[in-house]
Amino acid sequence: MFWTGKSSRWRGRHRQHARRVRSPDSLATPNILSTRSDRGTYSRLQRTYIGTARSNASPNRRSPSSAVTARVTVTAVTEFLASRLLILNSVDFKRQFRAACGYAELGMAAESIAELNAIEDEYQHRPEVLQLRLHHLMRKKQWSRALTISRRLCRAAPEASAGFLHAGFCLHQIGRTREAKEVLLRGPTALLKEPIYYYNMGCYEVLLGNLKDARVHLQISFKMDSSFRDLAKRDPDLRPLHATL
Question: For the chain, where are the alpha helices, taking DSSP H only?
Answer without folding.
Answer: 2-19, 41-54, 64-82, 91-105, 109-118, 127-139, 143-156, 162-173, 177-185, 195-207, 211-224, 227-234
